[in-house]
Design brief:
The chain is mainly alpha-helical. The chain has two domains: 179 residues, no CATH class; 167 residues. It is built from 14 helices and no strands. The longest helix is centred in the first third of the chain and has 34 residues. It is flat, with a radius of gyration of 27 Å.
Length: 382
């Protein structure tokens, strides 16, 4: 007599012997070395932040015009003898900054400003080398995720453009009667640095999560908050450019009273330069006034975005915009302190780095509005 068998037995046995499908094969084939590339981009990110700080100090110490030639390769070596130092010093003596402002400067004083500018340029070369070696290595090893080659190549192209713009900026102060570089060129140079930093930060955020996670998270995106945070990002970028104009003409060292300017709501002689348009770049009172007004408006809009973030159902997103609001207020206070102390470099550099922190925090809030983190039913992060 045959033994009774469960109607599910055959299916169960077949299931036991059948090999289980491996999850994530498609994603694995597309993901490349996401963790390694992310680590590489984080190194580049830190180096760009350092570059912004060194560039700010170079400007605050009036060192940016000490090297009067653009030699991307041979310029990597500093003067190696007293004769070479004397030669570089003689080149500096030919430009307006020395003739109109620093006449009588000693060789030792020249060396101080030279080392600042040389270090700034050298750091740029190192960043370019780190990018080139990393990109070539991942490309040759075929470890770049699908769709990422153009993105990573674009970062390098922007870095190369930044070097060219740097020289375009410096060249504006080598002739005529200008004692510093053109402020609008300085703003272009700093603005591109923040663009590069923004791309690096966004890519780091993306690579920190899997493609599957990002795809699922996008279904819960908050379009309104994302759009408003994009506007906040653009507004903060405009404020950064205005800050560069202030730094370019040392406008932060004048009109040191607050909230008034020279005792009035408006600074005196706001449009005294001819033609009229030059006042928006070269009139220290008008430039500082624009920076102040934009700061107030940015704070107001930032509070509006923060209040909108309160309606988000995601705890991590709300917390991200909490930090944006805190830093936005702190950056405004730091700006006021900077101008009331006539912008000494020890305070001014922290104000510039505060802009970096705020930029990254806004970028992170924007990212979480687009790709919310998974969270438990209680509302905390999963």
């Amino acid at each position: 007599m045959s033994q009774k068998r469960s109607i599910f037995e055959e299916v169960e046995e077949g299931a036991a012997t059948r090999p289980e499908p491996k999850a994530g094969l498609v994603e694995k084939s597309r993901s490349g070395a996401r963790k390694a590339i992310r680590a590489w981009l984080m190194v580049l990110f830190a180096m760009v932040v350092l570059m912004i700080a060194v560039g700010g100090l170079t400007r605050l110490t009036d060192s940016g015009l000490s090297i009067t030639e653009w030699r991307p390769v041979t310029g990597a070596l500093p003067p190696m003898s007293e004769a070479h130092w004397a030669e570089e010093f003689e080149k500096y003596k030919q430009i307006p900054e020395y003739q109109l402002q620093n006449r009588g400067m000693s060789l030792e004083e020249f060396k101080f400003i030279y080392w600042w500018e040389w270090g700034h340029r050298q750091l740029g070369r190192v960043i370019g080398l780190v990018w080139a070696v990393g990109f070539a290595g991942f490309l040759i090893a075929k470890k770049i995720p699908v769709g990422w080659t153009g993105r990573l190549l674009g970062v390098g192209a922007l870095g190369g453009l930044q070097g060219a713009i740097g020289w375009w900026m410096v060249s504006s102060g080598l002739t005529g009667e200008r004692l510093d570089v053109a402020s609008y060129r300085l703003a272009t140079h700093l603005g591109l640095a923040f663009v590069i930093l923004g791309f690096l930060g966004w890519f780091i955020f993306l690579l920190g999560r899997s493609e599957t996670d990002l795809l699922q998270a996008r279904r819960g995106r908050e379009p309104k908050l994302f759009g408003m945070s994009t506007g906040l990002l653009h507004f903060s970028f405009l404020q950064i450019l205005l800050g560069a104009l202030v730094a370019g003409i040392d406008a932060g060292r004048n009109y040191i009273d607050w909230p008034l300017m020279a005792g009035g709501v408006f600074p005196p002689d706001m449009f005294q330069i001819e033609p009229l348009w030059r006042n928006f770049f070269e009139n220290d009172g008008l430039v500082q006034f624009m920076h102040r007004m934009a700061g107030y408006l940015l704070l107001i809009y930032g509070v509006i975005v923060w209040k909108r973030s309160r309606s988000s159902g995601n705890f991590a997103t709300r917390r991200a915009f909490d930090w944006v609001a805190v830093m936005l207020f702190g950056q405004m206070v730091l700006g006021i302190v900077t101008v009331m102390h006539s912008a000494p470099w020890q305070i001014a550099i922290f104000h510039q780095l505060g802009a970096v922190v705020l930029w990254v925090l806004i970028l992170r809030g924007r990212f979480l509005a687009q790709y919310p983190q998974q969270q438990s039913i209680r509302g905390g992060a999963a």
